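Reviewer 2 asked us to include a model.

Predict the structure of this chain.
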Amino acid sequence: RKKDEYPVDYGMTQNNLGTAYTDLPSATPEQRAENVRNAIECYQAALEIRKKDEYPVQYATTQNNLGIAYTDLPSATSEQRAENVRNAIECYQVALEIRKKDEYPIQYATTQNNLGAAYTDLPSATPEQRAENVRNAIECYKAVLEIRKKDEYPVQYATTQNNLGTAYTDLPAATPEQRAENVKNAIECCKAALEIYKKDEYP
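Predicted model (structure tokens):
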């Protein structure tokens, strides 16, 4: 499937190959890094065909996949980790330019959830940066819950509530009162998750 002869098939196959590299089991961190780097190259090749204006849905899918790959890429230093996560955030934000809430609600929620996780993982140089990153994550998870309703998507709802609770727990606080409020919010989220995560069903 040559790029010039079968561009659509080429883009699809490169995207699929990237997913395969991402899923490939690795015996060592070095192997994992190589697999993920291969995946990133595949997604970037797919994006040479899957242009935003020509194939917007496929473009958004590949950008989301590329964001996941950057998030999964092992890092030797905190600087590398920060760069990888920033790349992931950029991919998710670009995907959300297509994955609008009203048009693609499921995909919107998936990418918002990924974006929230990336903000949570983003290394921070200062407490102020950390607070901003976690607040961004909280906004993402709240956006996800606008789609992942308890009655419609119970497991995903519970997962997102759990993620939101973790974010509130991680949120830096300037005063004991702020800390108390953050922890209370986290408790409410965890309680909401436990309405779905029953002991017998999801031990």
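The domain at 1-98 is CATH 1.25.40 (Serine Threonine Protein Phosphatase 5, Tetratricopeptide repeat). The radius of gyration is 19 Å. We have added this to the supplementary material.
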